[in-house]
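Hello, quick one for you while I still have it in my head. A protein chain has come my way and I'm curious about its shape. Can you walk me through what the C-alpha cells say about the fold? No rush at all, and the record is pasted right below.
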Amino acid sequence: MPIDVSQLPYRPCVGLLVLNKSGMVWVGRRVGSPNQAGGGWWQMPQGGIDEGEDHTVAALRELREETGMRSARILRASATWHNYDLPRELLGRVWGGKYRGQTQKWFALQFDGADSEINIKPEDHDQEFDLWRWAPKSELISIVVPFKRDVYVKVLEEFGDLIV
C-alpha cells in the first residue's frame, strides 16, 4: 500500500550552524552517504527534539552527541521553523516510517574550542558522520544533502550576517 505523505507529520528537530573563529561553518559527511562527485552528502549537525525538551537544550545536546563539541555558545535562534520533505525512496524507511520529513528550529553557534575537542565517533551515540571539516559559506549549498538544500539556503540567508 502506498504511503499517503499528506497524512504524515514532520519530526521536530534542531539544526545547528556552527562557526569557528575564522567564520567557517562546520559540516560532516553522513555515514553511508552516496559517493558523489562532491565526495558524499555533507550537512550541518541536526537532531530530534525529545518530548518536552527545551529547544536550546536539544541544540546543545545534539551538538555534543554528534560532534563532541562542548565549547560552543548559542548566538541566535531562527525566527521560524524550516521544513523539508524526505525523498520518496526514504519514506517509510527512516524514523520508523512515522514522518514525512523534519521541521527544524535552527541555531547559530560560535565554537570557541580547539579542533582537537571535536569527536565524531561518540561512545554513547550512533555515529552520524565519517568525516568533518570547516567549509566556507560559498561552498555549502553545492555539497549538502540535495533534499535539504532549500532549508540551507533559508538558514544561510537568516544567519548570513554572522558568517564571514
User: Anything to note?
Assistant: The beta strands are 10-19, 25-30, 42-43, 46-48, 72-85, 101-111, 129-135.
